[in-house]
């Protein structure tokens, strides 16, 4: 059973999301909160598998909550609930360790599948949205983009060639199965390479890995990494 906490300051939306998720046989909403302060208390008490959080809330907002959950409840995966145009809130959350995001106008099945994917350790970003978000990371501030690219290339230099190839596919939004087909390796091998890469880089999930790989140019979206 996937244990979920929903944090949103809009009661109708929060309760509606909880009801839709509770209808699934494999999902149990174990807590609800109307702001990040209460949300963190609920997360620390209930220790859920997945935390769905809004970004703009009174008190501790979704970004602060994401950082605190990653730090204090590392077993929980954070997924941002947002409107598509709110990239300015989503990008910092992804950097802070959120696994991805779900749109507030998603269908019930999309929400349930997103929660299942998060619990399974997958990034909650479609390939199209992945590119949109990753491009937003480097388009907003040219000087910051150069700095991030230089730092990213230095960081990924510790990886093996195969690990860099896997991260490049992750940054393109590919699933483990798609990476296995593209790189002609078994899916468990893909998972092993990704796990080793995350450990070497000190990252918590594949979304953070996708951001770093994009900044380093491993997906063809920036300058190539030095070999």
From TrEMBL:
PROSITE patterns: HTH_LUXR_1, HTH_LUXR_2, RESPONSE_REGULATORY. Coiled coil: none annotated. Residues 3-119 form the Response regulatory domain. It holds the Pfam family Response_reg. The keyword Cell inner membrane does not apply. Keywords: DNA-binding, Phosphoprotein, Transcription, Transcription regulation. The modification 4-aspartylphosphate is found at residue 54. GO terms for biological process: phosphorelay signal transduction system; regulation of DNA-templated transcription. Residues 152-217 form the HTH luxR-type domain. CDD domains: LuxR_C_like (cd06170), REC_NarL-like (cd17535). SUPFAM superfamilies: C-terminal effector domain of the bipartite response regulators, CheY-like. GO terms for molecular function: DNA binding. The keyword Transcription regulation applies. Gene3D superfamilies: 3.40.50.2300. This is LuxR family two component transcriptional regulator. It comes from Luteimicrobium subarcticum.
């Amino acid at each position: 059973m996937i244990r979920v906490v929903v944090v949103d300051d809009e009661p109708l939306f929060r309760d509606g999301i909880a009801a839709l998720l509770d209808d699934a046989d494999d999902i149990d909403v174990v807590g609800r909160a109307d702001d990040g302060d209460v949300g963190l208390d609920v997360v620390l008490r209930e220790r859920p598998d997945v935390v769905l959080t809004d970004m703009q809330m009174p008190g501790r907002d979704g970004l602060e909550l994401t950082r605190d959950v990653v730090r204090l409840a590392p077993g929980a995966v954070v997924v941002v609930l947002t409107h598509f145009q709110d990239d300015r809130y989503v990008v910092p959350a992804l950097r802070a360790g959120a696994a991805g995001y779900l749109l507030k106008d998603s269908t019930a099945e999309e929400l349930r599948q997103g929660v299942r994917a998060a619990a399974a350790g997958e990034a909650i970003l479609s390939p199209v949205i992945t590119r949109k978000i990753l491009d937003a990371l480097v388009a907003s501030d040219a000087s910051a983009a150069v700095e991030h690219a230089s730092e990213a290339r230095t960081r990924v230099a510790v990886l093996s060639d195969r690990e860099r190839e896997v991260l490049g596919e992750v940054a393109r939004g590919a699933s483990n199965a798609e990476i296995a087909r593209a790189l002609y390796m078994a899916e468990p091998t893909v998972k092993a390479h990704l796990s080793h890469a995350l450990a070497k880089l000190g990252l918590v999930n594949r979304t953070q890995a996708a951001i770093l790989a994009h900044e380093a140019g491993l997906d063809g979206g920036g300058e190539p990494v030095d070999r």
